[in-house]
Write a structure and sequence with these properties.
The chain has 202 residues and is α+β, with helices and mostly antiparallel strands. It contains five helices and six strands.
């Protein structure tokens, strides 16, 4: 009988421990959800670490949380390469309103053969690019970077050519894609940008 009492006490202790663990986990999970829902929290689409073009230092894209983000895959030897000028002007015009342009050079279409340093020099010397640029990236297919895989999934379209554009709202809930022929300073594109920069995160 004593043995049965000890067994019962042991079971009660284990049961109490399990309930405590589950309750703690639930609280942590709830806190994580609450944290994710806070204004300015990093949306899932920006939860990626990439390398800066100039020095290949790791950068977390969460630093742009709360901004309207324009992601563009770029190339140095493309018919659309002059869009660098439009992208830089767009960035300069809207950066104080909460827009940031993020450039990702890619050789997926065989028009960006250079290494990161040469690309950085080209962008700065030829077009005076000041917006953030990141290291050469695969943007489509099974080897695409996690960021571009996610953008492709959210919009049902992978980059079809260089200078494909993804426009992300401040809260990350709205992601629009624009083809290469859409100039960043075109009337229709600027209209979408104006809507997003005017909207504040809840």
């Amino acid at each position: 009988m004593i043995q049965r009492m000890k067994s019962k006490q042991t079971l009660n202790t284990v049961s109490f421990f399990i309930r405590s663990v589950l309750l703690t986990a639930a609280c942590w999970g709830g806190n994580a959800l609450a944290e994710a829902a806070k204004p300015g929290a990093c949306p899932a689409v920006l939860q990626h670490t990439v390398e800066r073009l100039q020095d290949e230092k790791s950068q977390n894209l969460c630093q742009y949380a709360g901004k309207v983000v324009l992601v563009v895959n770029t190339a140095s030897f493309c018919g659309f390469t002059p869009q660098y000028k439009s992208l830089e002007e767009l960035h300069a015009r809207y950066k104080d309103k909460g827009l940031v342009v993020l450039g990702f050079p890619s050789n997926d279409f065989s028009q960006e053969p250079d290494n990161n340093q040469k690309i950085a020099d080209f962008c700065e010397n030829t077009y005076g690019v000041k917006f953030p640029m990141f290291s050469k990236t695969t943007v489509r297919g099974s080897d695409a970077s996690p960021l571009f895989k996610q953008l492709t999934k959210l919009t049902d379209t992978a980059p079809k050519w260089n200078f494909y554009k993804y426009l992300i709202s401040r809260d990350g809930q709205k992601v629009q894609s624009f083809n290469s022929t859409t100039d960043p300073l075109s009337k229709g594109f600027l209209s979408e940008v104006d809507k997003l920069v005017a909207a504040q995160t809840p």
